[in-house]
Amino acid sequence: METRKTKVIFTKAGGNANGSPSVCRISLPKAWVNRMGLTPERREVELAFDGDKVSIQNLKESPAKRRMLADKKKIRRFALVWGQMYKNHAAVPQRYFELAELVGDGMADLGFEMDAGESMRRAFPEADAFHDNEALKGISSKVDLQTLGNAIFSRWRYWNHWAMGPMQEADFEWFVTAFSRLAELAEDL
């Protein structure tokens, strides 16, 4: 988890405010806002306060706003490239796996949703395919393109944003298996 120290900005309220009301603001790093997928068109977030801590979270998009899946050729090409990147991870600079502009934005542009593995858990409640490579191999003949793409996007986000340690060899293998199956599914459409 990334952290930064910042200061709260206090400004006087404008308009017809009586007394001496003020408005409080905090500037967020642009890179964080980009990684959250916020844009001037999609900027609504949910704030939560527990008495000590404030958290900011994306609001779930309605299904009507969800992007359609991209052309199968684009999905297949993306899956083949990233499958090879993960397979040859020792020869690839680590920053390539972390840049939202490469993997995260690519998955979103293809129409996949970062859902924290929820669609995979709903589809296969008996298997821990979101974390376990062997379980993923076991369900690979049954998984659909959207569910697998969502799982890849969500698992990438976990390693990119929440994990507190480096990826292990088994984690890279999971991505190789997942991207390989995604490429097959895109070919079969």
Protein described:
This protein has helices spanning 30-35, 72-87, 95-98, 104-109, 118-123, 133-139, 145-162, 169-188, and strands at 9-12, 22-25, 45-49, 54-58. It is mainly alpha-helical and 189 residues long. The protein folds into two domains: 9-59, no CATH class; 65-188, no CATH class. Strands 1-2 form a two-stranded antiparallel ribbon. Strands 3-4 form a two-stranded antiparallel ribbon. A hairpin with a 4-residue loop joins strand 3 (45-49) and strand 4. Helix 2 packs antiparallel against helix 8. 21% of the residues are buried. The model has no long low-confidence stretch (mean pLDDT 85).
Give me some keywords for this one.
single chain; 189 residues; mainly alpha; 2 domains; two-stranded antiparallel sheet; 44% helix
Sequence-ordered SSE layout with sheet pairings:
Layout: E1 9-12, E2 22-25, H1 30-35, E3 45-49, E4 54-58, H2 72-87, H3 95-98, H4 104-109, H5 118-123, H6 133-139, H7 145-162, H8 169-188
Antiparallel strand pairs: 1-2, 3-4
Helix pairs in contact: 2-8, 7-8
